[in-house]
């Protein structure tokens, strides 16, 4: 059972997400609270996944993210956002966010997103991905990005594409017929070579480099 906490300043959003997730098999919503109650609820309920509004009037969502990430054995945190909130994305990425979901995400897509997060995968709503790719990663020099990609082995590029598709280490291991330990080694090498600090940044790097388009072709 995946334990989920929803944190948002709008009661309508909290209630909607809670009802959608509570109706899904294998998911238990352990709380739906405002930002001021978030840290205390995480400590009390020990959720596996937290869906956290990126900006709230009572307390800044990025501050809450940092506080949660500093806890012992912190839960996975994905940020809830609207399309015009991309100025906060870079800070959230560097603070350890595992993904971004738009508040108007298709209800049918929400439970699978939570399940992917719980497995260690990344989740990026398509609109958010486009915004981040155009903004966050495009800030870096093209030449540096190209050289970083060239440092990857063929197998590491394959793993990077699967990371960008949101697969966890276990899912990648199954897909590529490798051990989970081997996949972890590949992921560590990828993060080092690309000079990024997490899976989401690596996924966005792959998006910007066009690796997913290459795979589809």
Automatic annotation (TrEMBL):
<dbReference type="InterPro" id="IPR016032">
    <property type="entry name" value="Sig_transdc_resp-reg_C-effctor"/>
</dbReference>
<keyword id="KW-0238">DNA-binding</keyword>
<dbReference type="GO" id="GO:0006355">
    <property type="term" value="P:regulation of DNA-templated transcription"/>
</dbReference>
<dbReference type="GO" id="GO:0000160">
    <property type="term" value="P:phosphorelay signal transduction system"/>
</dbReference>
<feature type="domain" description="HTH luxR-type">
    <location>
        <begin position="145"/>
        <end position="210"/>
    </location>
</feature>
<protein>
    <submittedName>
        <fullName>DNA-binding response regulator</fullName>
    </submittedName>
</protein>
<dbReference type="Pfam" id="PF00072">
    <property type="entry name" value="Response_reg"/>
</dbReference>
<dbReference type="InterPro" id="IPR039420">
    <property type="entry name" value="WalR-like"/>
</dbReference>
<feature type="modified residue" description="4-aspartylphosphate">
    <location>
        <position position="53"/>
    </location>
</feature>
<keyword id="KW-0805">Transcription regulation</keyword>
<dbReference type="Pfam" id="PF00196">
    <property type="entry name" value="GerE"/>
</dbReference>
<dbReference type="InterPro" id="IPR058245">
    <property type="entry name" value="NreC/VraR/RcsB-like_REC"/>
</dbReference>
<dbReference type="InterPro" id="IPR011006">
    <property type="entry name" value="CheY-like_superfamily"/>
</dbReference>
<feature type="domain" description="Response regulatory">
    <location>
        <begin position="3"/>
        <end position="118"/>
    </location>
</feature>
<dbReference type="GO" id="GO:0003677">
    <property type="term" value="F:DNA binding"/>
</dbReference>
<keyword id="KW-0804">Transcription</keyword>
<keyword id="KW-0597">Phosphoprotein</keyword>
<dbReference type="InterPro" id="IPR001789">
    <property type="entry name" value="Sig_transdc_resp-reg_receiver"/>
</dbReference>
<dbReference type="InterPro" id="IPR000792">
    <property type="entry name" value="Tscrpt_reg_LuxR_C"/>
</dbReference>
